[in-house]
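From the methods appendix. Each design record in this collection lists the tokenized structure first, followed by the designed amino acid sequence. Records were kept in a plain field format so they could be parsed without special tools. The example shown here is representative of the layout used throughout.

RECORD:
FOLD TOKENS (45 positions):
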């Protein structure tokens, strides 16, 4: 499942969902790298 996270104020990353950390961050994988950031909220179009 693909998820999008925000790293900092202006950088978003989309990758394969790995897990959610105890402090609410989401971890995604892109290739061999893993990134943790705040999940992007869905908005109605």
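DESIGN:
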């Amino acid at each position: 499942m693909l998820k999008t996270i925000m790293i900092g104020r202006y950088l978003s990353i989309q990758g394969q969902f790995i897990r959610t950390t105890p402090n609410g961050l989401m971890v995604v994988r892109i290739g061999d790298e893993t990134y943790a950031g705040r999940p992007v909220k869905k908005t109605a179009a």
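APPENDIX NOTE: The chain has no helices and four strands.
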